[in-house]
Fold:
Amino acid sequence: MIIILMGVSGSGKTTVGRLLSQELGWKFYDADDFHPQANIDKMQQGIPLDDADRRPWLEKLREMVRTCLDRSESAILACSALKEAYREYLLIDPQVVLVYLQGSPDLLRERLKQRRGHFMNPQLLDSQFAALEEPQHAVVIDVTPSPPIIVQSIRKNLAI
Structure:
């Protein structure tokens, strides 16, 4: 199984993903690590990425998902996957499941103010919510509770 944890910046994708991977003993991948430097530079400057910027990034992610499936390796991918087209591109097999980490703009804005050492400019949160196409076919998890509670909710919903 490949779990894609999706949501806007500040929803806890990386924190929850790492915790979940530790509990399950699965490999963890952070989609941020797959961005080319040009994308990182744009985001640091507060410039939203467009579809052309995201295309090579999504291609790398899809290749990573395919490799895990080919090797029968379970994994967790933390990825914003804000648009339906991006998710369709990544959901290449029934073994790839989507978990939407959902939170209010106020909660996530507050979390981003506390975050240090990340290239994502907090000013981009509004553009992320504007770009977000909420998934119709995903496990939806409220991110208000603590990360350990969120992990248990994911495990319960996916029976893992």
